[in-house]
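Reader question, answered in our methods column.
A reader sent in the components of a multi-part assembly and asked whether the whole thing could be modeled at once rather than chain by chain. We filled in our standard form and ran it. Here is what they sent:
COMPLEX SIZE: four components
ENTRIES:
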Amino acid sequence: MVESLLLYKLKKYLRVAVLVFLILAYLSPLYWIFTTAFKTRAEMFSNPFYLTQVTLENFEEAARYGAFDAIKNSVIITVGGVGLALLLSVFAAYAFSRYAIRGKNILMFYILSTRMMPPIALVIPIFVMFQKLGLKGTYTGLILMYATVSLPFSIWMIKSFIDDIPKDIDQAAILDGHSLTYVLFKIVIPMVLPGIVASMVFSAITIWNEFVFALLLSSIDTRPTSVLLSSIRGERGFNWGRIAAIEVVYILPIIIFVFLVQKHLLRGLTFGTVRR
Amino acid sequence: MSDYFLELRNIKKRYGDKTVLDNISLGLRRGETLSLLGPPGSGKTTLLKIIAGLERQDSGDILMDGKVINDLPPYQRGVAMVFETLALYTHMTVYENIASPLIAAKLPKEVMDKKIREIAKFLKIEHLLERKADKLSGGERQRVALARALVKDAELYLFDEPFINLDAKIRSALRTEFKKLKTTLGKTSIFATPDPIEALALSDYIAVLYNGRILQYGTPIEIYDKPINLWLARYLTGNMLNELYGRVVSQENGVAIELTSPVKRKILVKDYAPNYVDIIKELGVAGTQQEIVITIKPSQSTIESSQECSGLEIEAEIIGYENHGSEILVFARINDTVLKIYSSRDILNRDIIGAKNKICLDLTKAVIYDKRTGRVLGDT
Amino acid sequence: MMVDVRLKDITKVFGKVVAVRNMNLEIKDKEFFAILGPSGCGKTTTLRIIAGLEKPTKGRVYFDNQDVTSLPAKFRDVAMVPQFYALYPTTVYNNIALPLRSRGVSKEEVKQRVREVAELLGLTEKLHLHIDKLSIGDKQKVSLARAIVRKPKLYLLDEPLTILDPVTRIIIRSELKSLQRRIKQTIIYVTHDQIEAMSLADRIAVMNMGVIEQVGTPYEIYDKPSSRFVGWFIGEPGMNFLEAEVDKHSSAIKLGSQEVLQSKTLVSKLVEKTNNNKVVIGVRPEYIYLEKNPREAGNGYTIVKGVVELIEFTGTHYIVLVGIDGREVKVKMNVEDYRRLNIAPKENVYLRIPLDKILFFDPVSEKRIL
Amino acid sequence: MKLSKDSFKNFISQHPAWFMVLPALLLLLALNIFPLIWSLGLSFYKFTLIIKEPLRYVGGQNYIELLTSPEAWDRFIKTGAYIFISLLLQFALGFTLALLLAEEFKGRRLLTTILMIPLMIAPVASALFFRYLLDYNFGPINAILDRLFGIRIYWLGADPSPLFGLPYALISVILVESWIWTPFVMYIILAGMGAIPTDLWEQAEVDGLSFWYKLRYLILPYIKPMIALILMFRLMDSLKTFDTVYVLTAGGPGTTTELISVYIYKLAFIEWDFGSATALSYLVIVLVIFMTNVFMRYLILKRG
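And here is the structure of the entire assembly that came back:
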């Protein structure tokens, strides 16, 4: 035997140790965001590495700065966008999965092509269009825009979950004597509920994080958190504690989502590679 | 007017440029069980779905009680079906699954409950009623699917390979149970399966499907005793058929077969298979030296050396065996052909592997095929 | 190199499921040993524990009295042939050679040994091919070759033949059997196919729900099953089981209203082993003979009256289901006998059962008592 | 009235699929397809929002101007360099992580999940925070460098770095983008490895294959098609890089980090030259379609 048992075990532990170190280093920026958010101004300059004294003053200041209005806007836009997209995509996904619709493969190509397209290319005409229709700077405009953006992906994702249910299930229900509405709402939708939730979460994260459309189609009153964060860029002398506090409020829900539905998120993330 | 309950006339179906069903015509009387036997992809499922109305034929008619029902939607056809995938509603309980067709029929609650409990008792799944359908074993799932179909007061029951994913042992137990059920209820049913034993055991009639066509139609015994072509003969025995090759020659003392494989020998037909004399004679007279395949099932030959052999005797080397308990299936090789013969278990009393042994093939029970066309000889 | 394998008090739990429960098993050196059971009975888990791919929750594994329970798989020197061949996506040659090269065997020796094994299994012509170009039968042969080339202590085969078509399966099975005669190594063979186990193994362990029900030679298991499960599982169809009563006063065994056996010695033995005079009679379907006319019992036979319920034609046989006072018996007949008898459902028939083929089981524990 | 209602109902029940897809289709048509066609049209006009000047059709002039402008070429070359180096980095790191995570051990699932966070939080938030990390005076990165080696670097400045002489600001952009996207590469490679049957892994274990043999004969053959896919996806996404640059450097200092997307943005919303901006967008789209075609062909050929 070339390798001894001892060496084998040593290697195994070493591998895990290296991995843990790499990942800790990798995630250190997150550590800084969270510690900075709770640091006093004095400690920020004197001691960049640890957190000795916890304060909430950064959050108070973030509130004064309008952070919670921005978070509220983010919530309104996200909920609206996800809701609208979901409503439309469940029906479309069912149809795409179950019927021989001409150009079915176009859906796949369409999603790929929206991924190819720089959002800037789309936003210019919409900017002009929204201005003419009076939608620029309104919640409605942003919600419509985001629903459109998440629609193709949402349809694809729910469709892929429906595809996993054998068509025999629908046919069995029809043979039992049920109507199409019953099949859709009482049989198919309950069966793919986890998938629907996953696609909702995925759309929600996308909309929550989106920047280009938000930057150009929102107004001071409707701007979501991403735009608020970017506007800090123009200031002189950063108040890092305040920025960190806003970021913590902004990214914490996402981190929680990641842990709740990680398996499904992965499915969306690796779209087109794992399932083909 | 025929007395058929269900009749199919020239059913055709294509998917793209692939013909799935080609001119299928069949009839079925009330109370009968018909098996659709065929390998995967032969069109069994499509045919069942067309009968159920879940798919539409490209041409041809479906008749029930003499009336064309082509345009009748599935739920008006009085048909229940067990799908190959079983198609259980996994998010519902067993009770809710069985209730599904009754809910659609808008039955009163009490009637529904009574029916569900009756059928559950009948199929021995009462204890599972509150269980979620995805928490069941294979055999249990199968019973639930069966219950959901049987609870419906249908005129015709369709079964699409319902035992396909089960262990052989559970499968044969369910098969017998199923046959009992069918006999008790006396319902008309169609049963699709790729397993010849299932088809033989379960049905009154068998239609063998091959590439979307009906190859042979008849009772199980008719089909097993005289398969219409070589492919079917092999399929029915699970490729355990013994095949001898030869050509027909005409001689002064009668017509003979000149065997070419696995042994070279000339045999007189009247000595070995008097029942074939007339059929073979026609071929011999033509002087074409027609090539034929003589097939003998493993159970129609013997390997015991003590017995007198009245058939064709061949010496071969035993290379292996399969132990079926009371019987032994022996494999013996001669000139690259492996002969399969059932024997009693006494043969294992000695070390048989590698031994030469005399094998006796009873040619009177053979079925003979034309080698070129593969069709059975003596078929009228 | 040779090895005997011993499992001591092995238990394996996955979450809430007990896959193997308190198993004790001894496999002798150079033995062809089969582990037989239905899917989900824990047979594959047992094999994986022996291979070192799974760690038992409780218990120890010994090779030649050496405790290997926590030794990783690669140090156990066992070879495995899985159900789905599991070949590396490269050429046939590489597949067979990689395990040797990983162990630092010299290039010439690798070449030499791969050649030998390829010759043995008839793969010489295909050594340079990519495995994608092989038939399923050849792939399984490569998988076998890869195991043999290493000359391991122990071979573990996990249903390696089930994916093959019947003809190839029989050919490879025969080759496997003759191979074992030549290499004379311990082989543990897992299967759900009773015919395969009966045909290949020197000894068989029958498993059910994580427990070993019986260990024995093929005919020990077939003729004297130690439990109802073994009797049902072995044989096609499996053994019939009929609830019967022991009548102490008349020294008789009764099937409902019919007296089937009268023997003082037998009855006293049975009474000793049961506590409420109930026993289960076990008899194999192929040992029952059907007759149309009544006949006296005697001369090693007993006669039971019944009604034909159902007839199944399976091609090679007929299976007749006969009802006896609410009990059911399957009778397996060959085609000639059946056609000679000429019976139909609902007809009365008489079952002739040889006394020496009747076994007795306990109705509660389901174990054989006689 | 009743009749028309019935015939409408009839229509729906005859064509349920059509009816189910329609609402989604209408929205996509209005806010995606129509605007795209419109913007293609715009790229043939001189059009600006601030000066009250009428639309002026100029044919292919916008395209010709862009293709002959040294400024545009400069942005393309910058973007190319940026993509090349960041893909290299992401791939090297992602592959290493994937290999380390390939085998089962306690806590593996948790580690894999944690790595999803950089992908899921907003790029704007990440970029903004890296500005703090990379800050010359207060940033922890310089603080560490100072303590270990006694140096400080102008991470967001235009000074040339040792890496091909690229300015530090561009290196910083690469760093941030790679931080965000490395887990993506890792996940896809892991997914590729997930396609290796468990049987085969265990076989390799029982056969005692060494790490290099496993890598060469087991892992690489299985992830080969994945590598091409990763390159394709990362190329498409990298060409769109905007959020991080906008927040981290806004294209500066000067134009050192002005990638294509940022340049389009500037053309459109700083110079208000919508015609040129849309024309450049379409040039990018053509480029992407060309590249994906090449990749797809490679993939299809590879898979036979």
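What stands out: Chain A touches chain D through 86 residues (CB under 8 Å). Chain A has a mean pLDDT of 84.
Send us your own complexes using the same form.
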